Amino acid sequence: MxxxxxxxxxxxxxxxxxxxxxxxxxxxxxxLLHLLHDWREGGGPAxxxxxxxxxxxxxxxxxxxxVARVCAGLGIGHDILRWDGQxxxxxxxxxxxxxxxxxxxxxxxxxxxxxxxxxxxxxxxxETFLMRLARGAGVDGLAAMRARFDTEGVAFHRPLLTLxxxxxxxxxxxxxxxxxxxxxxxxxxxxxxxxxxxxxxxxPLGLGADTLAATAARLRVARTAxxxxxxxxxxxxxxxxxxxxxxxxxxxxxxxxxxxxxxLVAGIAWMTGRDYPPRGAAMVAFLDAARAGRRMNLQGCxxxxxxxxxxxxxxxxxVAGLHAPAGAVWDGRxxxxxxxxxxTVAALGAAGLxxxxxWRAGGLPHGSALASPGLWRAGTLIAAPLAGWPEGWRxxxxxxxxxxxxxxxx
Length: 410
Known about the structure:
By secondary structure, this protein is of the alpha+beta class. About 45% of the residues lie in helices and about 20% in strands. It has 16 helices and 18 strands. α11 crosses α16 (about 400-410). The longest helix has 29 residues, at about 210-235. The chain is globular, with a radius of gyration of 25 Å.
């Protein structure tokens, strides 16, 4: 498939009026830019480009300036987005990736752009497959990255996933376009560098980038099917109770392990907003606890069992230090309004439960009530809507049952 055909196949008839393009200066994103420029000249969408300068290498600023010159030559507007390193704890590549999407989404919204194209290729699919295989990933981890996904209100597109890096570089050479090779691509300290080396070694065995990318694509189909099955199961046996997630125990016991695991993983993600699920061994233990009706804590959530239902609730320790003014979002999923005067939203905790006229009136068990949000003023509890004491205040759960179902189907 040619680059032009790949673009048309990805976008179909749903062409955005203006398409944002993330261009780093590497071969993949520059090839994407030139293919989109040709399309624009032939009636495709208008373009605007952004380059993220992570500030992690000495040459990053120069590379961003080079992209600006390329865009000026093509008559395309260009902006440089700079990251100050905020949130760069632990896994630096992951922090940089998160920052990149956050900056690009913010830029797109300011520009009034709803869609942004990024230059991931079949080689990226294959490299990611090997990296995740080395970590013991299952179907979800090994499945191909999505060709389209939404982040912070912006649709990101990967229209080149069916194309390899080699043909794209040939396209650039034919046009006399030079690109920048990130020196970290040759640093064996990075997993992706080692994955590229492994791909070169595996190619003589027929396990090249095209083969692994095709396998990842088939696993994406399998993942979609499993997600659909899990969603139907969730619709049948799950419901939300005061911000907690409930599953019927008898029906949960009849589910295949993979479907039951997906319901639990989605519940944790829905409740905490985390992007990544617990590691495999932890999820095996969590599923075992659910099957046996044992209490277990994981990633800021508490699993417990009653006679008829399993319950997933927020762990009090995970929210004990969270505070937000009324009207703002607390714990990523609650918003309080309707009351009078200023107030702070914080977990009830033991002090809050003691201050409630009768916290049992809300119907939540003790652990859930501890972690539930209340309204405080000057250190005094003034309302606890989930504990049966609203005093004119309302709590809105921003991620409801529909959002849980969407998380399950992934």
